[in-house]
Amino acid sequence: MENLITALGLINNYEVFIAICIGSFAGIIFGAIPGLTYSMALALMLPFTFTMQPVTGISLLLATYIGGMTGGSISAILIGIPGTPSAAATVSDGYSLSKKGDASIALGTAVIVSTIGGLISLSLMIVMVDFISKFAIKFGPAEIFMLVLFGFSTICGLAEKSLFRGLVAGLLGLMLMTIGTDEIEGVQRFTFGNVQMLQGVNLLVAMIGLFAVPHILEVFNSRICDEDQKNYDIDVVKTKLPSFALLKKYFNLMLRCVGLGTSIGAIPGSGGPIAAFLAYSHAKNSEKDLKEKELYGKGHLGGVIAPETANNAVTGGAMVPLLSLGIPGDPATAIILGGLLIHGLVPGPMLFIENAPQVYSIYLAILLAYIVVFLFQVNFIKHIVKILRVKPHHLAVGILIMVVVGSYAIRNSFLDVNVMIIMGLIGYFFNRIRLPVTPIVLGLVLGRTIEQEYRTAMSLSAGDPSIFFGSIVCVLFFMLIILTIALQVRKRVIDVRNQKKLKEVNQA
Amino acid sequence: MEKSKFYLYLGLGVLAFSIIWLILVFFQIEGDLGEYANTPRTIPFFLGICMSILGLVFLYQYKLGFRPKQSVEPLKKNEIRNIIICVILFLIYAYVLELFGFILSTPIVIYFITRFLLKEKNWKLNFAFPILMTALIYFIFIILLKSSLPRGTLIQII
Amino acid sequence: MALIKGGKMKIVKKIGSLIAGISLFAMTISTHAFAKFPEKTVEMTILFGGTAKSVGQLVAKGLEKNLGGTVVPVSRTGGGGAVGYKYIQSRPASGHDIVWNSNSVSTSHYKGKTKFNYKAFEPISAMTTEVPVLAVKSGTFNSVKELAAYVKKNPGKLKVGISGKGSFTHLTSAIVFDALGGKVTYIPYGKGKAPAELLAGRIDAAVQWPGQFRSFHKAGQLKMLAVTSPNRIPSDSNIPTMQELGYKKVDVVMWRGLAAKKGTPKAQIKALEKAAAAYANSSEFKAASKKIGFTINYLNAKDFGKKIAKDDKKIKKLMNKLGLAKK
After folding, report:
1. Tally of CB atoms within 10 A around A4
2. If contacts are CB pairs under 8 Å, which of residues 335-364 in chain A contact chain B?
């Protein structure tokens, strides 16, 4: 209680409020514009939080995250293009609804279920974080190593279409993270004798490069080639909130989707898109009325409610491993982790003992951000939609400015600007040959942890690798890893068989 | 049906990268291999080996005649040139930023980009946009959120 | 710039002359010698994050107030301080680039990360010290004596957590356990994890900054056994020093202070020293020291220089002994 009051004091400050408003607004816009993602918004914002007060900076990031998760539905519903990957599942029914002329009610429902989903998952998260962090103090280096390895196997497997392509990207991320000073022995690695290289690849710089630069390159490229990218012209829209009876009808579905979203968010390496698609198919399959079931895909409100509830519930779930173990589940939470670390808040079990007021202020900031996002979307949707009319290259110029200023400002180092450009080129190249980029980021994020925990565990056991199977938790995670990989391989084998069959059919 | 060369190139690329990496592991990291598998070299070495295995897997896939589900788009006309221009732009802006600071360099650079690179014709937009953009970022980050932006080493305003 | 062709050449020329004009203007500003110091913004390079950064930012603000010019703290982290030191060495010795330095000037040199040593810098003033403390889990060892007896009996068995090999906590631990007279095993773990690892019993002892242990010590979960400074520290005055307990050789503190590149004119050093002294004695700084948990320990340029030289010798000897120094 005492902590809550201190937290209220921390957050009761006009700067925090402004930060939340700006974050929500930026999040909604970046979420709504196809091609820009909220991860990009977060990466661009982060460098500027360095000199802010801790609570202000973190509120800014959290509000951006939440705004982005919610904003993706706007363009999914209005123009049938998901603003962020998480909103992809909303497209089929949302866009159908707006073609039928029900855009207002679809938007209104999306906003309100997003908020409800987010808030329920927030309360679930508070309970879970508390429980896990008490348990997590027993997690030693070996256990954390196995957990991160499990997260890594899900990233490269579940999250991407192809296991091997995902692995290439993931390994590249891990490799990049070993450049610079080795933190355990203090030895130089891959520095070519250059003192600047000692600082290594900064995670934040790499993320700015990977998320924002390919977009700028694409837009500029097509603009110079005189292939103007189209901007979206949208009629005036309003948000109409659904009736209470309607919400009551779907309340059961919403609860289930919250549970689904929160638990999927809590697994490192999964995230919004997976949760949204699972929730969508769950909603469709659980519908008993055959007539109603027919309507899914043709403009059923349930097809908006389920994915939107689930992808916002992911925000709460993803905060669980982040706050209790210090392991981010997706790029967005990885950036928030960066924001926490800058201000000396080291996530893990100790955070709740040493920085309890800050943790409570994080909870309050999330709550406040949901309220602000809700109000924005209900009252200002008309103006927000206008942003979609801005020409892509004008936005790209703005992003270019933020990219360079941000990557330079992090450590005032030109090396970082160069690293940003190189990472951007890697991202662009990977996009072109259709290799996934997300695993690179997660490799970068988890790389330090994997190596450190591995080596600490090995020094604790004096070089005996059996420490990695020394506890039930370790064995459990090991089995989960095997399961994830086995599932992947099985899927792959089936794919190959199908392809072969297809070939035979073609030849016959 | 023509055989897709995608996996051949991908496999060779990955393999070449992993070999270079493994060589670098031995030249760029000091220290012995140690008693246990627990030195600064361990993890990079392991990663290099994994990467080379992946390269071999891709080559094997090529041999089996796999084709990627989505084909890779061919290079657009002038694509490489355009990208090089963008990279130079990044570097120029970063350099100007260090010399003159945020407030001076940003509008100038934005003006040049929109006017010449993006060929924006509307002259009102050409003047208003750089100034508004700079003012917006300055207002949000310095005035509202009390953050800081780079100041120049040659000229200092702010 | 293949984009700009033909008819646009005129504009390009105009722009070219404009740029030339601007840079000429800039040059005249920057090279014009003013008699007054500081003639432009003083940049204070900060080498680390965490407490080093927060105290550094305070000092920069304090200097600004007492110097009559702007002082900006700029973080240049990486390589155990080497990146920042190298940056200072690359700047002109005009006093406008100063560094918030620490013992890391010696450790990074002997680790082979920087070619220059402490002699490449002109000391300005020492500002603060931070003192590591030896801690164990409550109920395992009640005093340093018990710990010493255990270490002597079971060489190599005690697991001591350090932040990383060659880190300052590693060096301090080496001095402490050398004095206790026994061999121990060092476990490098991530930064800031000492309390959790101690509580879970995965390591037996750790030498770290008191801020990490204080709340656990008060709650009775961990026990701070001794501090490594010659005098007790004000923030934890109930913890005895190693010297009080009979280990006379133990005298390790981490100092932080200000330095500039060698060759900076005396007048500039004097001006900075004066401003630093004024801030070190201000009530504002004293209040901050209580809040953040460091000790104010002001030394003037001359004494600071002696201290650096003395510590450098100590660190050199120690790192050679531990086999950390690069030959």
Report:
1. 14
2. none
Q: What is the pLDDT of residues A204-243, one digit of tens each?
A: 888 888 888 988 888 888 877 766 556 566 666 677 777 7
A429 touches chain B (CB under 8 A): no
Name the strand (E) or helix (H) holding C279. Answer: helix C266-280
Q: How far is CA A236 from CA A103, A387, B87, in A?
A: 11, 12, 39
Residue type, A372: V
CATH value of C133-236 in 3.40.190.10, 3.40.630.30, 3.40.440.10, 3.40.640.10:
3.40.190.10
Count: domains in chain B: 2
CA distance A95 to A108: 14
ipTM confidence: 0.88
Token duo for residue A461: 């056991």
Query: C42-129+253-322 has which CATH code?
Result: 3.40.190.150
**Cβ–Cβ contact A344 with C under 8 A:** yes
Q: Are A213 and B71 in contact (CB under 8 A)?
A: no
The dihedrals phi and psi of A133, each to the nearest 5 degrees, come to -70, -30
Q: How far apart are CA C164 and CA C272, in angstroms?
A: 34
Looking at the domain assignment, is residue B110 inside a domain?
A: yes
Tokens of B27: 């030249």
- Closest-CA residue of B relative to C4 is B116
pLDDT in tens, B38-67: 778 888 889 999 999 999 988 988 888 777
Q: Domain residue spans in chain C? A: 42-129+253-322, 133-236
Q: Which of B85, B151, B155 sits opposite C26 (nearest CB)?
A: B155
Cα gap B101→B154, rounded to integer Å: 8
Query: C42-129+253-322 and C133-236 share one CATH topology?
Result: yes
Most confident segment among A484-488, C30-34, C247-251: C247-251
- Closest to A111 in 3D by CA, of A231, A260, A237, A210: A237
Of B78, B140, B150, which is closest to A408 when you measure between CB atoms? B150
- Tell me, yes or no, whether B36 lies in a domain: yes
Considering only CB atoms, which chain B residues are within 8 Å of A56?
145
Q: How far is B153 from chain A (nearest CA, A)?
A: 12
Is the Cβ of B37 closer than 8 Å to some Cβ of chain A?
A: yes
Question: Is residue A290 classed exposed, middle or buried when 0-12, 13-18 and 19+ CB atoms within 10 A define those classes?
Answer: exposed
Residues β-bridged to residue C102? C256
Q: Is residue B14 part of a domain?
A: yes
Backbone phi, psi, residue C206, to 5°: -150, 145
Residue C19: strand pairing partners: none
Minimal Cα–Cα distance from B25 to chain C, Å? 19
User: In this predicted structure, what is the pLDDT of residue A270?
Assistant: 67
